[in-house]
Amino acid sequence: ETGVTQSPTHLIKTRGQQVTLRCSSQSGHNTVSWYQQALGQGPQFIFQYYREEENGRGNFPPRFSGLQFPNYSSELNVNALELDDSALYLCASSPNQGNYGYTFGSGTRLTVV
Amino acid sequence: GDSVTQMEGPVTLSEEAFLTINCTYTATGYPSLFWYVQYPGEGLQLLLKATKADDKGSNKGFEATYRKETTSFHLEKGSVQVSDSAVYFCALTGGGYNKLIFGAGTRLAVHP
Protein backbone atom coordinates (compact mmCIF):
# COMPACT_ATOMS: atom_id res chain seq x y z
CA GLU A 1 0.00 0.00 0.00
CA THR A 2 1.18 3.52 -0.70
CA GLY A 3 1.83 5.81 2.22
CA VAL A 4 1.14 9.51 2.57
CA THR A 5 2.52 11.56 -0.31
CA GLN A 6 2.95 15.31 -0.37
CA SER A 7 3.68 17.76 -3.16
CA PRO A 8 5.68 19.73 -3.90
CA THR A 9 8.71 18.77 -1.81
CA HIS A 10 10.18 22.25 -1.85
CA LEU A 11 8.72 25.65 -2.62
CA ILE A 12 9.94 29.24 -2.54
CA LYS A 13 7.38 32.04 -2.38
CA THR A 14 7.46 35.79 -1.92
CA ARG A 15 5.89 37.52 1.07
CA GLY A 16 2.24 38.37 0.37
CA GLN A 17 1.73 35.53 -2.13
CA GLN A 18 -0.58 32.58 -1.74
CA VAL A 19 0.42 28.90 -1.72
CA THR A 20 -1.35 25.54 -2.01
CA LEU A 21 0.17 22.35 -0.66
CA ARG A 22 -1.22 18.93 -1.51
CA CYS A 23 -1.46 15.63 0.31
CA SER A 24 -2.63 12.17 -0.73
CA SER A 25 -3.63 10.15 2.30
CA GLN A 26 -2.74 6.51 2.80
CA SER A 27 -5.20 4.09 1.26
CA GLY A 28 -8.18 3.51 3.56
CA HIS A 29 -7.49 6.59 5.69
CA ASN A 30 -10.38 9.05 6.05
CA THR A 31 -8.72 11.55 8.39
CA VAL A 32 -6.05 14.05 7.40
CA SER A 33 -4.21 16.46 9.68
CA TRP A 34 -1.75 19.21 8.83
CA TYR A 35 1.17 20.32 10.98
CA GLN A 36 3.69 23.15 10.75
CA GLN A 37 7.25 22.42 11.88
CA ALA A 38 9.50 25.44 12.23
CA LEU A 39 13.23 24.82 12.17
CA GLY A 40 14.44 23.15 15.34
CA GLN A 41 10.96 22.78 16.83
CA GLY A 42 8.29 20.16 17.20
CA PRO A 43 5.35 20.08 14.80
CA GLN A 44 2.36 22.29 15.64
CA PHE A 45 -1.19 21.22 14.79
CA ILE A 46 -2.89 23.39 12.15
CA PHE A 47 -6.18 21.58 11.50
CA GLN A 48 -7.77 18.22 10.81
CA TYR A 49 -10.33 16.95 8.29
CA TYR A 50 -12.53 13.93 8.73
CA ARG A 51 -14.69 12.81 5.82
CA GLU A 52 -14.43 16.21 4.11
CA GLU A 53 -15.32 18.27 7.20
CA GLU A 54 -12.93 20.26 9.35
CA ASN A 55 -13.26 18.78 12.84
CA GLY A 56 -10.43 20.48 14.69
CA ARG A 57 -8.24 23.54 14.43
CA GLY A 58 -5.11 24.73 16.19
CA ASN A 59 -4.00 28.25 16.99
CA PHE A 60 -3.47 29.42 13.42
CA PRO A 61 -5.05 32.47 11.74
CA PRO A 62 -7.84 32.17 9.16
CA ARG A 63 -5.43 32.75 6.29
CA PHE A 64 -4.54 29.09 6.83
CA SER A 65 -7.36 27.10 5.25
CA GLY A 66 -7.88 23.65 3.86
CA LEU A 67 -9.99 21.19 1.96
CA GLN A 68 -10.51 17.47 1.94
CA PHE A 69 -11.81 15.79 -1.21
CA PRO A 70 -14.09 12.74 -1.61
CA ASN A 71 -11.03 10.53 -2.16
CA TYR A 72 -9.72 11.89 1.20
CA SER A 73 -6.80 13.74 -0.34
CA SER A 74 -6.31 17.22 1.05
CA GLU A 75 -4.99 20.71 0.38
CA LEU A 76 -3.54 23.32 2.68
CA ASN A 77 -3.85 26.90 1.48
CA VAL A 78 -2.00 29.83 3.00
CA ASN A 79 -2.84 33.37 1.94
CA ALA A 80 -0.84 36.55 2.42
CA LEU A 81 2.37 34.67 3.19
CA GLU A 82 4.61 36.02 5.92
CA LEU A 83 8.30 35.33 6.52
CA ASP A 84 7.40 33.35 9.67
CA ASP A 85 5.39 30.93 7.54
CA SER A 86 8.70 29.44 6.38
CA ALA A 87 8.62 25.89 7.73
CA LEU A 88 8.21 22.21 6.94
CA TYR A 89 4.51 21.42 6.44
CA LEU A 90 3.59 17.88 7.32
CA CYS A 91 0.47 15.99 6.36
CA ALA A 92 -0.64 12.99 8.40
CA SER A 93 -3.45 10.53 7.81
CA SER A 94 -5.32 8.04 9.96
CA PRO A 95 -8.06 5.46 9.36
CA ASN A 96 -10.22 6.54 12.28
CA GLN A 97 -9.64 10.09 13.52
CA GLY A 98 -6.28 9.27 15.00
CA ASN A 99 -7.43 6.75 17.58
CA TYR A 100 -4.38 4.58 16.87
CA GLY A 101 -1.95 7.17 15.60
CA TYR A 102 -1.09 8.81 12.32
CA THR A 103 1.09 8.11 9.29
CA PHE A 104 3.11 11.13 8.17
CA GLY A 105 4.26 12.22 4.75
CA SER A 106 7.76 13.53 4.06
CA GLY A 107 6.58 17.13 4.10
CA THR A 108 6.78 20.25 1.97
CA ARG A 109 9.57 22.68 2.76
CA LEU A 110 8.18 26.21 2.25
CA THR A 111 10.54 29.16 2.18
CA VAL A 112 9.06 32.67 2.15
CA VAL A 113 11.40 35.43 1.02
CA GLY B 1 -3.61 22.61 28.30
CA ASP B 2 -2.00 19.34 27.38
CA SER B 3 1.76 19.44 26.86
CA VAL B 4 4.89 17.32 26.43
CA THR B 5 8.36 18.05 27.82
CA GLN B 6 11.46 16.30 26.54
CA MET B 7 15.04 16.43 27.67
CA GLU B 8 17.08 18.91 25.72
CA GLY B 9 19.64 17.71 23.27
CA PRO B 10 21.83 17.06 21.60
CA VAL B 11 22.54 13.67 23.10
CA THR B 12 25.89 12.36 21.91
CA LEU B 13 26.75 8.69 22.39
CA SER B 14 29.26 6.16 21.20
CA GLU B 15 28.03 3.17 19.26
CA GLU B 16 26.66 0.36 21.50
CA ALA B 17 26.00 2.77 24.40
CA PHE B 18 22.72 2.74 26.36
CA LEU B 19 20.21 5.40 25.42
CA THR B 20 17.59 7.13 27.54
CA ILE B 21 15.59 10.12 26.35
CA ASN B 22 13.28 11.48 29.03
CA CYS B 23 9.70 12.52 28.27
CA THR B 24 7.05 13.74 30.68
CA TYR B 25 3.57 14.92 29.89
CA THR B 26 0.64 16.89 31.23
CA ALA B 27 -2.80 15.85 30.08
CA THR B 28 -6.41 15.67 31.08
CA GLY B 29 -8.03 12.34 30.49
CA TYR B 30 -6.13 9.32 29.24
CA PRO B 31 -4.00 10.14 26.22
CA SER B 32 -2.18 7.72 23.97
CA LEU B 33 1.58 8.27 23.92
CA PHE B 34 3.96 8.07 20.97
CA TRP B 35 7.58 8.32 19.96
CA TYR B 36 8.28 9.55 16.45
CA VAL B 37 11.68 9.71 14.74
CA GLN B 38 12.77 12.19 12.08
CA TYR B 39 15.83 11.52 9.94
CA PRO B 40 17.54 14.45 8.21
CA GLY B 41 15.41 15.94 5.44
CA GLU B 42 12.51 13.59 6.05
CA GLY B 43 9.08 13.53 7.66
CA LEU B 44 8.12 11.75 10.87
CA GLN B 45 8.08 7.99 11.30
CA LEU B 46 6.17 6.33 14.10
CA LEU B 47 8.67 4.49 16.28
CA LEU B 48 6.39 3.09 18.98
CA LYS B 49 3.21 3.80 20.89
CA ALA B 50 1.29 2.94 24.07
CA THR B 51 -2.41 3.49 24.52
CA LYS B 52 -2.95 2.92 28.25
CA ALA B 53 -1.13 2.97 31.57
CA ASP B 54 1.58 0.31 32.04
CA ASP B 55 1.62 -0.55 28.34
CA LYS B 56 5.09 -0.98 26.87
CA GLY B 57 5.67 0.04 23.28
CA SER B 58 8.62 -1.47 21.46
CA ASN B 59 10.14 -1.45 18.00
CA LYS B 60 13.62 -1.89 16.47
CA GLY B 61 15.18 -2.36 19.92
CA PHE B 62 13.59 0.81 21.33
CA GLU B 63 11.20 0.61 24.28
CA ALA B 64 9.05 2.99 26.32
CA THR B 65 6.58 2.32 29.14
CA TYR B 66 3.48 4.43 29.81
CA ARG B 67 3.84 5.45 33.46
CA LYS B 68 0.69 7.20 34.67
CA GLU B 69 1.96 7.67 38.24
CA THR B 70 4.98 9.66 37.06
CA THR B 71 3.35 10.95 33.84
CA SER B 72 6.35 9.75 31.88
CA PHE B 73 7.15 7.85 28.69
CA HIS B 74 10.94 7.61 28.57
CA LEU B 75 12.56 6.15 25.45
CA GLU B 76 15.31 3.55 25.93
CA LYS B 77 17.57 1.40 23.78
CA GLY B 78 20.16 -0.97 25.06
CA SER B 79 22.75 -0.53 22.30
CA VAL B 80 22.57 2.34 19.84
CA GLN B 81 23.93 2.32 16.31
CA VAL B 82 25.20 5.10 14.08
CA SER B 83 22.04 4.65 12.01
CA ASP B 84 19.94 5.69 15.04
CA SER B 85 21.21 9.27 14.69
CA ALA B 86 18.07 11.38 14.23
CA VAL B 87 15.68 13.67 16.07
CA TYR B 88 13.23 11.93 18.40
CA PHE B 89 9.84 13.42 19.28
CA CYS B 90 7.61 12.40 22.15
CA ALA B 91 3.92 13.09 21.55
CA LEU B 92 0.46 12.50 22.95
CA THR B 93 -3.01 12.63 21.52
CA GLY B 94 -5.06 15.17 23.37
CA GLY B 95 -7.01 18.39 23.34
CA GLY B 96 -9.92 16.78 21.61
CA TYR B 97 -10.20 15.08 18.20
CA ASN B 98 -6.95 13.19 18.88
CA LYS B 99 -4.61 15.88 17.59
CA LEU B 100 -0.96 15.13 18.26
CA ILE B 101 0.86 17.37 20.73
CA PHE B 102 4.62 17.14 20.34
CA GLY B 103 7.59 17.87 22.50
CA ALA B 104 10.38 20.03 21.10
CA GLY B 105 12.41 17.04 20.01
CA THR B 106 15.76 15.59 21.11
CA ARG B 107 18.60 15.24 18.64
CA LEU B 108 20.65 12.06 19.00
CA ALA B 109 24.12 11.76 17.48
CA VAL B 110 25.82 8.36 17.61
CA HIS B 111 29.53 8.14 16.81
CA PRO B 112 31.45 5.00 15.75
Architecture overview:
The complex is a heterodimer of chains A (113) and B (112). In chain A, 0% of the residues lie in helices and 50% in strands. Chain A has strands at 5-7, 10-13, 19-24, 31-37, 44-50, 53-57, 64-68, 74-78, 87-94, 103-104, 108-112. In chain A, the strands form two sheets. In chain A, strands 2, 4, 5, 6, 9, 10 and 11 form a seven-stranded mixed sheet that branches. Chain A has a four-stranded antiparallel sheet with strand order 1-3-8-7, with no helix packed on it. In chain A, a hairpin with a 2-residue loop joins β5 and β6. Chain A starts with a strand and ends with a strand. The mean pLDDT of chain A is 93. Chain B has 112 residues and is an all-beta fold. Chain B has strands at residues 3-6, 11-14, 19-21, 23-26, 33-38, 44-50, 56-59, 62-65, 75-77, 86-94, 99-102, 106-111. In chain B, the strands form three sheets. In chain B, strands 2, 5, 6, 10, 11 and 12 form a six-stranded mixed sheet that branches. The model of chain B has no long low-confidence stretch (mean pLDDT 93). At the A-B interface, β5, β9 and β10 of A face β6, β10 and β11 of B.
